[in-house]
Amino acid sequence: MGSKRLAQALCNAQRGSRFFMSIQDLAIELPAPKPLRLGEASLFLDLDGTLAPIAARPQDVRPDPSRTCLLERLVDATDGRLAVVSGRALCDVDRILEGCVVPVAAVHGLVMRDPLGRLIEAAPHPGLPRAVAELSAFAARDSGLIVEDKGLSVALHFRLAAPYSDAARAFAREVAAGTGLALQEGDMVEELRTPGPSKGDSVRRFMDMPPFAGAMPIFVGDDATDEDGFEAAGALGGMGVAVGRHRAVNAHYRLAGVEAALAWLEAAL
Ligand SMILES: [Mg+2]
User: Fold this and answer.
1) How far is the CA of 193 from the centre of ligand 1 (A)?
2) 44 and 22 in one domain?
3) Ligand 1 mean position to 226 CA, how many Å?
4) pLDDT tens string for the chain (269 positions)?
5) Which terminus of the chain is more exposed, N or C, with fewer CB under 10 A?
6) Domain limits at 103?
7) Could you confirm whether 46 is annotated as catalytic?
8) Are 118 and 248 within one domain?
């Protein structure tokens, strides 16, 4: 938002004007990105909420031939400067994207597959088995509570059990404190992860290697877990593009949702 508009919005708010704009509105107002120039870009794309609509259960997100085809064309057009940076396990990214992207940062950066297909993986934290057991015991109270064991992290999803949201968040905090795992809050999910590299660290690591190095990093993502990806892209001379309504702090631009994100990518081809 330009400084003039921000000043006007604050002025309206102070007057109690009917044009009152909340702090949340101020935070989410970002311009649409300019047309993408693939010849100059290194693309870092989140998966859920960015390339694929959020589903009620993580396993409900399935392969989509038109998305796979789009990604294959983008990989070609960027000479391979496209990485998927997701909170999902690597096998799940490959399942949904039909293995069409080699460079992937999975589990929020704890697992990285480089452009040559080599794996770099953090060692699992010793507190994970206990966290899986405790979250599973908690989830037993409602079939809408879903525990997803990703090996290096464990997620408790409550999109289908909204009345348990507060209790689930509080319980996840307790388990994190008891096990030493890092807590990662997401959209209707709490995740306990092995402390280690973030999505932003993955962007920095990819940008140090060919074919990514030297091009402008563009990180596209939809929620709080993408903030350090936006930040890293910006710090390296690129930009962050928020998707949907997330209250982005480090993003520079915004696209309205998954469809708009896919259309923006498609238009660059
Ligand atoms: Mg996402």
Assistant:
1) 16
2) no
3) 7
4) 444 444 444 444 444 343 444 444 444 589 999 999 999 999 999 999 999 999 989 999 999 999 999 999 999 999 999 999 999 999 999 999 999 999 999 999 999 999 999 999 999 999 999 999 999 999 999 999 999 999 999 999 999 999 999 999 999 999 999 999 999 988 899 999 999 999 999 999 999 999 999 999 999 999 999 999 999 999 999 999 999 988 888 999 999 999 999 999 999 99
5) C
6) 38-122+196-267
7) yes
8) yes
The total of structural domains in the chain comes to 3
Give the pair of three-digit tokens for residue 79. Answer: 């000479």
Q: Among the three residues 166, 193, 220, which one is the final residue of a domain in this structure?
A: 193
Residue 136 CB contacts under 8 Å (≥ 6 apart), including other chains: 147
Ligand 1 centroid to 61 CA: how many Å?
Answer: 12
The two tokens of residue 62 are: 């399935």
